[in-house]
Design a protein that fits this description.
Elements (H helix, E strand, L loop, with lengths): L2 E3 L6 E3 L2 H6 L9 H30 L7
Antiparallel strand pairs: 1-2
Bound molecules: zinc ion.
């Protein structure tokens, strides 16, 4: 049985072969609470990246030396 390291709490845990294949190369979380935490982190990161790229776009739109 494959062993995964939880990306949230770092615990090593055994994953069923089926789930391991479904996860491809990603590490699976060890419990439903870690899974929920992980989902929140991913969502926050995506939102932060979206805000950052929107900010970059806004700044470059107002940049006088834009080479478009
Ligand atoms: Zn965990």
């Amino acid at each position: 049985m494959p062993v995964h390291v939880c990306p949230v709490c770092g615990a090593r845990h055994v994953v069923s072969s089926v789930l391991h294949q479904l996860a491809y190369r990603r590490s699976l979380t060890c419990s439903p609470s870690c899974k929920a935490t992980f989902g929140q982190r991913v969502r926050r990161r995506i939102l932060a990246e979206m805000a950052e790229s929107a900010e970059r776009r806004r700044v470059s739109d107002h940049h006088p030396d834009s080479e478009d």
